[in-house]
């Protein structure tokens, strides 16, 4: 931690009545694998972990997480936790392009940068929220530092290394598609890309014309060269903390997340499949994801006094009767609720929950 840069920024975003602007402090810390930039919002809360986020390829913390953390209902969570948004090296706003021949860190090495961040901030534990490559990085960190991770929200995680068929498909796609289009295909579903909505146009333009596109390609290459996490249900290599897996219906990584769910401890794992959310639920369905994160935190013992929302009120009776009916069934169960009912899971601890919402 020889070098440190700190910049104080006031976020420009719509404020709720009575809400004051958040002050963001951006730091850059040296690690054994190069410099890493992260932005801190809020102040540490006694006996509470920090929320630490890690973004996917083609994005940075702002383009990946701002729609979620700026959502109105998320403010209740923000008030209860300090949060740290990590930018992968070279992905932060204004990042210079790395020189030709620069050896970009592997995903394992990116995970090994996190202890340097926590040591500088003097934070002992975190709840991680990661998307895609960021979900993999946080999972790798959790495997190596189990005592410092209280919980994980993993969106679009693929815990597997690329197989030969994956590599062949990747190479063939590279012959006919640009790097930016390949990354967009990683982020969004084919249906979304074909629809070419305003959101898709925005992110296509952002990635295609990114001044640090060369850096993005290096992060993309590291993701494609990731090692298998080797999760094994009932084995020694598994996530010990509570985990919520999230994926959009018809998302590019739906099968990988389903497989990941089958490999993790069903007592510790919740599985949330979100309908009508595409490849990036935190961008397209921030309200439903916020609600799910709130229930996840409550299941960990935080925010117990959180007010009941319209969604939670609407499902209280049905879930109470369902829990009574299923009292003698296995600890692993599946709940299925429609998007029309507008409900989200709040099952008792120790259940794997697969929910279409």
From TrEMBL:
UniProt KW Protein transport keyword: no
Protein name according to UniProt: Protein NDRG2
Keywords of this entry: Cytoplasm, Developmental protein, Differentiation, Neurogenesis, Wnt signaling pathway
Compartmental location: Cell projection, Growth cone; Cytoplasm
InterPro entries, sorted: AB_hydrolase_fold, NDRG
One Gene Ontology CC term in the entry: cytoplasm
Keyword flag DNA damage: no
GO biological process: cell differentiation; nervous system development; Wnt signaling pathway
Location of region: Disordered: 1-22, 320-357
Family to which the UniProt record says this protein belongs: Belongs to the NDRG family.
Primary role: Contributes to the regulation of the Wnt signaling pathway. Down-regulates CTNNB1-mediated transcriptional activation of target genes, such as CCND1, and may thereby act as tumor suppressor. May be involved in dendritic cell and neuron differentiation.
Principal subcellular localization: other
Pfam family, one: Ndr
């Amino acid at each position: 931690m020889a070098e440190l840069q700190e910049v104080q920024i006031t976020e420009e975003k719509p404020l709720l009545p009575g809400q004051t602007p958040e002050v963001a402090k951006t730091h850059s810390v040296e690690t054994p694998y190069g410099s890493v930039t992260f932005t801190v919002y809020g102040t540490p809360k006694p006996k509470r972990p920090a929320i630490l986020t890690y973004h996917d390829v083609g994005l940075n913390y702002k383009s990946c997480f701002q729609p979620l953390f700026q959502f109105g209902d998320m403010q209740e969570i923000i008030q209860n936790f300090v949060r740290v948004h990590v930018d992968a090296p070279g992905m932060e706003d204004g990042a210079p392009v790395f020189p030709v021949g620069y050896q970009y860190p592997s995903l394992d090495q990116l995970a090994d940068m996190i202890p340097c961040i926590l040591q500088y901030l003097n934070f002992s534990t975190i709840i991680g929220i990661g998307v895609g490559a960021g979900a993999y990085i946080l999972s790798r960190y959790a495997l190596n530092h189990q005592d410092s991770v209280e919980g994980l929200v993993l969106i679009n995680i693929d815990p597997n290394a690329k197989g030969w068929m994956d590599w062949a498909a990747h190479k063939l796609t590279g012959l006919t598609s640009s790097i930016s289009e390949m990354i967009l295909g990683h982020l969004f579903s084919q249906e979304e890309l074909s629809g070419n909505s305003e959101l898709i146009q925005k992110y296509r333009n952002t990635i295609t014309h990114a001044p640090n596109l060369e850096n993005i390609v290096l992060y993309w290459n590291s993701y494609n060269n990731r090692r298998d996490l080797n999760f094994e249900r009932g084995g020694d290599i598994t996530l010990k903390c509570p985990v919520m897996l999230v994926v959009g219906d018809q998302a590019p990584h739906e099968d990988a997340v389903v497989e990941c769910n089958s490999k993790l401890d069903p007592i510790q794992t919740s599985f949330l499949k979100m309908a009508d959310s595409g490849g990036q639920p935190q961008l397209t369905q921030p309200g439903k994801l916020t609600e799910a994160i709130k229930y996840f935190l409550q299941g960990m013992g935080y925010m117990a006094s959180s007010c009941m929302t319209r969604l939670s009120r609407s499902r209280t009776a049905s879930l109470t009767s369902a829990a009574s009916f299923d009292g003698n069934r296995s600890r692993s169960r599946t709940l299925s609720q429609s998007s029309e009912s507008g409900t989200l899971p709040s099952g008792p601890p120790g259940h794997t929950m697969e929910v279409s919402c």
